[in-house]
Amino acid sequence: MELYEQVCxxxxxASYIRPGGVAFPMKKETLYKTKIVVNKIQKLVNDIxxxxxxxxxxxxxxxxxxxxxxxxxxxxxxxxxPRSRSLYKVHNIDISNTINISYKADCLDRYxxxxxxxxxxxDEINYSINKYLYNKEENLNINSKNNVIKLIPRKIIKDNMxxxxxxxKFCTDNINTSPSVNYTSIEAPKxxxxxxxxxxxxxxxxxxxxxxxxxxxxxxxxxxxNLLLADLVTLIGTQDIVFGEVDR
Length: 248
Prior knowledge:
- Among the domains are: 2-143, Orthogonal Bundle (Cytochrome-c3 Hydrogenase, chain B), CATH 1.10.645.10; 145-174, no CATH class.
- Helix content is 46%, strand content 13%.
- It contains eleven helices and seven strands.
- The protein starts with a helix and ends with a helix.
C-alpha cells in the first residue's frame, strides 16, 4: 500500500490509470523500491512452498477436496483463473517455475497454481522494471500523445488555446466513438475481468463490469458434493471470494 500511495497519491480508490495512459509518470525511485518488495515476496513464497508443500497435514487436508469435474462444467459456469486452469494442462498458462501440479482440479492443485502464478508475476515485474530502468529519462512517460483521447495535464492547459479546447471538449463530451457493442477482458489474479460496452453516436448506452468472483462462486455447489460441512472452509478459501464484487 505504501508503494501504491507513492505512485498515485492515494492508498485506495485511486484514478491513476486513465484513458490514454496514466495520471502522471512514475519515478524511477519507485521502481527501485518495487524491486526490493518483489524480491522479498519471492523469498516468502519459496519459504511457504518449502514449509507447506511438504507438510503431510496440509497436503492431506487439500488433496481430493473440492474436485471440480470436467472442463465442460468450467465452460458452462463461465469459470476462469486457477479454477479453470487446474483442470487440464493444455489449458494452463506457460509456467516457468517448477512447482508440481497434478491437474486433478482439487484444492491442492489450485494452491500450487497460485504459488506458481505469484512467482511468475514477480518475474514479469522484475523484467519490466529492468527494461524501463535502462531508460535515460528521469520519469517514465507512457501516455498517448493524442490529446483527443486523454485528459490534458493542468500544467499545460494555459500554455495555448488548443490545449484548453481539448480539455474542455474532453470534460464535456468525453470520448466520442461510433455506435458499437464491445467486450474487452484481461486476465486478473482471480480470473477473467471484463468490461461490456454498448454505445450510441454520442453517449455510452450501457457499461457492464464482469467480475470473476460472481461466476466462480457458482462452482461451490459442484465442488461441495459429498463433502463435510468442515470442508466448506477450505472450499471458500480456494474460491478467493470477495463478496463485495459478488453483490455488485
